[in-house]
Structures are given as structure tokens and as C-alpha cells.
Amino acid sequence: MDYRPPFRVKDLIGQLGPITPVVVDSHATVMDALDAMATHDIGSVLVVEDKQVLGIYTERDYARKGERAGRSAARTPITDVMTREVITIGPQALVAEVLALMHEKDIRHIPVVENGEVLFVISNKAILRAFAENKAFWDTTMRDFGALHRT
Q1: Is residue 106 in some structural domain?
Q2: Which of 2, 35, 40, 65 lies at a 20 to 30 A Cα distance from 136?
Q3: Distance (Å, rounded) from C-alpha 34 to C-alpha 47?
Q4: What is the CATH number of the domain that holds 69?
Q5: Whole-prediction pTM
Q6: Domain presence at residue 17
Q7: Which residues pair with 45 in a beta bridge?
Q8: CB within 8 A of 73, min separation 6: which ones?
Q9: Where are the alpha helices (DSSP H) in 1-109?
């Protein structure tokens, strides 16, 4: 078998096409965030103020902190329920490292940041789609994932 270099997060852009991060303003409500996620068919939005990322809000946040917790989506400020500790990675990170991080932290969305700028948000769904569309991507990432766990 020929050696293939590791797949990096930046390679996903080539595989999947441009992935623009979807953001909501820090003054938004939960309903605004849900509308943005529905409009773009995504599972998370970044919460920003003056181009600075304050947090991330996901479908999982809604399930755990939303209506079930007695909060009205139309009246609850997004900053009350967003995840403030945003885990990020750089575009040079191995996709295998992203998978390990997602597993370790029990998260499904990770912003990709370079020089303080969010390039896109990588999701487990995007990685699975890349696997389904490219067997070499799967094979190489699984090789790299195995190597991470042997060290």
C-alpha cells in the first residue's frame, strides 16, 4: 500500500468545499440561534460580539438547557445558555486529532481558528460525509487515529 500523508483539517475544505461559519450576535435570543441553524441546516452557531467569539450554541445545548429547563426560546438571551469555553483547533491539526478531541470532550462541533480568525466550524457530520465520499480519507484517518492511540 502506498504511503499517504495524514489528512489535516484544512484538507476538509478541499474535500467538502468552503464551510462558512454561521454566527449570531451576542444580543440574539435562543430563537434567533435556532432560526439560523434551521436556515443553514447546521447544528451549531458561534455567538459573537465585535467579531470576537464569546461562545458556541448547539442543538445539544438547546436539548439540555432549552424548553425542557423551562426557558422560552423567544425570550432567553443566547448568552445565558451558550457554551462559553469554546474548544478550537488550527487548520494544520490532523483529522484524527479532531476525532480524538471530539470523543474526549464529548462535543460535535469545533471552530477552526488561524491567527485569531474563525475559518469554519468542523462537525462530526462533515467528517463522516468526507469519509463516505473518499475511502482514502477514511483509511488514512483511521491509520493516523490508531497511531495516536499507540503513543
Answers
A1: yes
A2: 40
A3: 12
A4: 3.10.580.10
A5: 0.84
A6: yes
A7: 57
A8: 29, 30, 31, 34, 62, 66, 67
A9: 9-16, 30-40, 59-65, 78-81, 95-105
Q: For the chain, what is the largest distance between any 2 Cα atoms, rounded to a whole number of angstroms?
A: 57
| Domain extent for 90 | 9-150
Q: 32: Cβ–Cβ under 8 A, 6 or more apart, which residues?
A: 24, 78
Tally the C-alpha atoms within 13 A of residue 105's C-alpha that lie toward its C-beta. 16
Tally of domains in the chain: 1
Output the nine-digit C-alpha cell for 107.
462535543
Residue 96 lies in a domain: yes
**pLDDT tens digit at each of 151 positions of the chain:** 567 778 889 888 777 766 789 999 999 999 999 999 999 999 999 999 988 899 999 999 998 887 777 788 999 999 999 999 999 999 999 998 999 999 999 999 999 999 988 988 999 988 888 888 888 877 888 788 777 777 5
In the block, residue with C-alpha cell 468552503: 18
